[in-house]
Backbone:
């Protein structure tokens, strides 16, 4: 039995469209996805602001809260919680050149409006935090923005969010590139530094996505461990990634099983989840996947996580200790291989 609770966002089930070709599966209604997530055993749902309130630009602040309250009723009826709300700051024309780091005052104000509305929606849904995936924050043309100015803008924008609501937590999902060319906040190291520079560091933490860590050339388990060491791993986006290329969001563990094992291991060893954190998934079905298999990658990811949890439970810490004492890392490595291959 897994000791963890899982979460997922509606975008994890999508129609298969990519930059090179159209949809290959039917669109599925948000509420139908949520109902299916409950049936699959997920405990919480992750939302973008406009997943929660579609066409958010068309409504007043009060109308947005009202719509969020309706969604809360639906979640309650399925015994689901909301994990977080994330402003989708990469689709609107106002955020063409970023939001918090936009050089246009009007576009900056729009980005802050979306951040404040995300906090309002989170409050209505009972979610403790907002997530900032800083999709377009950085440069497409390196000389177009000062990285010093941009970094300071991010800190002051987060400070405004912390001032807007005395309880809300702000969780930064780092990523080194894509769609932006050069990101300002690429790793957990960046997130920790930003956090420390804000007016309330305890309320600013990180979301480690496995694929984003790989895109940074880093080990996802070490990224998680780094944030855990500062009590700042607010959530995770588990998935997998074949080397440094476009962001793939493959099912958890399918590309690098040892790396996946070590992610489960670091979460388990450090009591992740004991303060209400969820094991979040951010995975995409392959474009070839059929309509009837639209949720299979999610089931696979959860199953792989649980199977790896069992492996972690069986990990022989006495043997590990002996290997460390003898500096016999060849034996330790072979033991891990055998454990993963079902040979011990
Ligand atoms: C993008 C990414 C997003 C965020 C949510 O790479 O991971 O799906 O997780 O906005
Ligand atoms: Mn993600």
Residues:
């Amino acid at each position: 039995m897994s000791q963890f609770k899982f979460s997922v966002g509606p975008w994890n089930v999508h129609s298969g469209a990519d930059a090179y070709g159209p949809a290959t599966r039917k669109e599925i209604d948000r509420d139908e996805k949520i109902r299916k997530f409950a049936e699959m055993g997920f405990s919480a749902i992750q939302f973008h602001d406009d997943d929660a309130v579609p066409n958010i630009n068309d409504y007043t602040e009060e109308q947005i809260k009202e719509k969020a309250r309706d969604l809360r009723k639906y979640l309650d009826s399925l015994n689901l919680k909301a994990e977080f709300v994330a402003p989708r700051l990469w689709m609107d024309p106002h955020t063409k050149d970023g939001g918090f780091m936009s050089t246009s005052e009007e576009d900056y104000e729009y980005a802050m409006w979306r951040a404040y509305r995300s906090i309002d929606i989170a409050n209505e849904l009972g979610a403790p935090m907002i997530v900032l995936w800083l999709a377009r924050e950085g440069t497409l043309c390196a000389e177009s923005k000062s990285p010093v100015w941009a970094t300071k803008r991010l800190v002051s924008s987060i400070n405004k969010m912390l001032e807007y609501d005395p309880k809300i937590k702000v969780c930064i999902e780092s990523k080194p590139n894509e769609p932006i060319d050069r990101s300002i906040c690429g790793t957990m190291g960046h997130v920790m530094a930003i956090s420390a520079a804000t007016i309330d560091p305890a309320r600013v933490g990180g979301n480690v996505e496995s694929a984003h860590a790989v895109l940074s050339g880093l080990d996802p388990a070490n990224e998680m461990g780094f944030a855990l060491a500062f009590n700042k791993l607010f959530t995770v986006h588990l998935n997998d990634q074949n080397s440094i290329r476009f962001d793939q969001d493959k099912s958890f563990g399918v590309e690098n099983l040892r790396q996946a094992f070590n992610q489960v291991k670091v979460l388990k060893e450090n009591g992740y989840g004991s303060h209400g954190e969820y094991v979040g998934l951010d995975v995409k079905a392959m474009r070839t996947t059929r309509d009837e298999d639209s949720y299979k990658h999610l089931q696979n990811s959860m199953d792989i996580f649980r199977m790896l949890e069992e492996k972690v439970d069986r990990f022989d810490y006495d043997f590990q200790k002996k290997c460390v004492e003898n500096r016999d890392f060849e034996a330790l490595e072979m033991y891990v291989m055998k454990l993963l291959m079902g040979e011990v």
Strands lie at 6-8, 44-48, 81-86, 129-133, 138-139, 169-173, 182-183, 204-209, 233-238, 279-281. Residues 6-314 form a domain with the TIM Barrel fold (CATH 3.20.20.150). The radius of gyration is 20 Å. Residues 30 and 308 are 30 Å apart (CA to CA).
